[in-house]
From TrEMBL:
Entry-linked SUPFAM superfamilies: CheY-like
Domain Response regulatory: 1-89
Gene source species: freshwater metagenome
Keywords: Phosphoprotein
Entry protein name: Unannotated protein
Annotated GO MF terms: RNA binding
The keyword Chloroplast appears for this protein: no
Coiled-coil region(s): none
Lineage: unclassified sequences, metagenomes, ecological metagenomes
Biological process per Gene Ontology, one example term: phosphorelay signal transduction system
Sequence ranges assigned to domain ANTAR in this UniProt record: 95-156
Matches recorded under PANTHER family: RESPONSE REGULATORY DOMAIN-CONTAINING PROTEIN (PTHR44591:SF3), STRESS RESPONSE REGULATOR PROTEIN 1 (PTHR44591)
Bilayer-spanning residue ranges: none
SMART domains: ANTAR, REC
Amino acid sequence: MGEAGRGDQALKLIRELQPDLAILDVKMPGMDGLEVARQVGDERICGVLVLTAFSQREIIEQARDAGALAFLVKPYQKSDLIPAMEMAIARFRELQALSEQNDVLEEKLEARKIIDRAKGRLIDEFAMKEQEAFAFIQQTAMTERSRMRDVAEKILSGELKP
């Protein structure tokens, strides 16, 4: 747990401590809370709960766009703080899980593209049928105990030929 009176100090502290949640005021000297929230969100450090004395729609939208996962208007009741904190932490964890799933899917898609290019090369240069090209990549990967993507990259670089 840490505390800072300035936005720039808060950002430094958040980066150092890697907390589950950062509670930020919109108006902070040095760097406003919305900019801190934006950077914390961009770096995927933790969930952000924004506090403000202003309830104007524009401020709420700016906080949301900056990556705040929960929002409380001051003065707030203590009974409102815990649920808002829990919501911000839970939403951050959900976003992290979705981001990780997205990264895995992007990696699989990229691997699929590389394998398809390698199959195309085997078909064009070695007159293989598509199933034969795929089987060659698959068998080589099993024999070498490596990923099909790695075998495909070797084919594309010319390092591996049937």
